[in-house]
Amino acid sequence: MSASTVEATRQAGRSVFADLEPHLPGVSKPIQYVGGELNSTVKEWDCAPEGETVRWALMYPDAYEVGLPNQGVQILYEVLNERDWIVAERTYAVWPDMEAVLREHAIPQFTVDAHRPVGDFDVLGLSFSTELGYTNMLNALDLAGIALHAVDRGEHDPVVLAGGHAAFNPEPIADFIDAAVLGDGEEVVLAISEVVREWKGEGRPGGRDELLRRLAVTGNVYVPKFYDVVHAEDGSIEAVVPNKPGVPFRVKKHTLMDLDAWPYPAKPLVPLAETVHERFSVEIFRGCTRGCRFCQAGMITRPVRERSIETIGDMVENGIRKTGFEEVGLLSLSSADHTEIGDVAKGLADRYEGTNVSLSLPSTRVDAFNITLANEFSRNGRRSGLTFAPEGGSERMRKVINKMVTEEDLIRTVAAAYSHGWRQVKLYFMVGLPTETDDDVLQVAELAKKVIAKGREVSGRNDIRCTVSIGGFVPKPHTPFQWAAQLDHETTDERLKKLRDTVREDKKFGRAIGFRYHDGKPGIIEGLLSRGDRRVGRVIEQVWRDGGRFDGWSEHFSYDRWMEAATTALAGTGVDLDWYTTRERTIDEVLPWDHLDSGLDKDWLWADWEDALDPDSVDVEDCRWTPCYDCGVCPEMGTEIQVGPTGQKLLPLQVV
């Protein structure tokens, strides 16, 4: 059923909770559907003069327990609701048992705030951290009564808008979304809301197409229907060109400058059900210029923009007061790289000494770690394990990926940790990196053994543990590795088995080394979705129709289902699964995302890719501390690096 049909049978914006409530006892974790979290917001459906209210349904396309802690959605939820003419509510993917209830009783996909039908909103904004959430998006659209394909939607259907890291190549879902935004969302969601308000206030002139045209001509919103993709006879892309006057050839990403002016979330949501992160998080800076060639997040979020120590302190205190959380995570892509992280750590530890408040850092770079910093963060809380990410098992591989960490760096760091009372260290690596050999992967085992040996030596204890966690490498758009061939899953699994066996066979160290890894099959599908073009949409749709849901969860993922869909949906196109995944690209190939501008110069990316393959190339240093490497971001985006030191100190709280 379409949204317009739904609207004809009931009042728009009416809560469906009365229909839903009788069925809650029969589904798992019913509390995830009831809403009412601390700091959540419920506003009147018509909160502005007639015709001027703009309504957003914000979706993280995964289960509540994964989606609620997502900072991106929480920030936009708050930024939008601060405007008295905007209604913003949240929706998450429903579990299969709830999906069955909704379908059986004709209850549409609903928001958790006021239980309003998603199809009644003006905009459905989806935040994609991973491409494996695409089938959940299709399921939500279908449950909401929104036409699956954008071309079939009417004037009163929501604008389906994609954001998040995966939106930097939204081509695989181009048939299903109306628009996409690249980069930071705080300012652009307000700009989009203004366009929607103006269009509605004028009486919706020109219908849906005119609204989309107004969004597209700003140059800030990508509308796939206004771009034609031309294919060559061999199946490759010849060109992506606008088909409507005023639509730009390239759509630029958004970059939020002066993070101190946007201290969100100021009213963090406190979940009713258990979630994957039971803490309050403060983002201390955005961006990373370390230059790791595999890291899409680091490339697309440039430049580095730090929050000041005062703003960080204010956000931490505000979050503790507003939520009651006792653990605070200081987040960024590499939190220990904040220029004043030592002062931040000491200031917060001093402030909350003697309380139940504990501080934590996520995975820390080996070369940014020091014991003083670690001791400050563990002073008021429990001393948990430390996590480091060398990424490559051999020094040669770390040079290929521009991860400038030597074996001596790692051993020195873990020696310091073990000698100061830590007993557990976790090391994260990747398998399947460009130019990798079996020996490079087996070096992970040797490195782990040396870590254990050093830990036993400096601590004088035998209860030293090291957990090795292995992830499969997936080439991502807008990185130097966007041209790389992905390793096939059979070779990935074979190398992982050799590594596991090597670890287990060692009687001296085997029991002290934990080993966690995922098989290579999900990575191949992620690779298909990461670097796919519009033809991949047929595969996604077929998988969803065949029952695909929650593909990011190992217990729900089916490689066979994806393989069958790819074989069927890509038949006759001249391309197949391997064409998208295990094939290396050339410099002259038009990539599906070339018309989407992350600010990175393509020639610079290619040169960095060539450097990765050159054993005699020099390391690319962090441009925060060196001359500019001409990646293109700052001049292209009109931005600049914003880092300290500011000379500020975090003062103790004043007792009022």
Automatic annotation (TrEMBL):
Residues 274-516 form the Radical SAM core domain. Coiled coil: none annotated. CDD domains: Radical_SAM. Gene3D superfamilies: tm_1862 like domain. Pfam families: Radical_SAM, Radical_SAM_N2. It comes from the Bacteria. NCBIfam families: rSAM_fuse_unch. This is TIGR03960 family B12-binding radical SAM protein. It comes from Nocardioides cremeus. The lineage of its organism: Bacteria, Bacillati, Actinomycetota, Actinomycetes, Propionibacteriales.
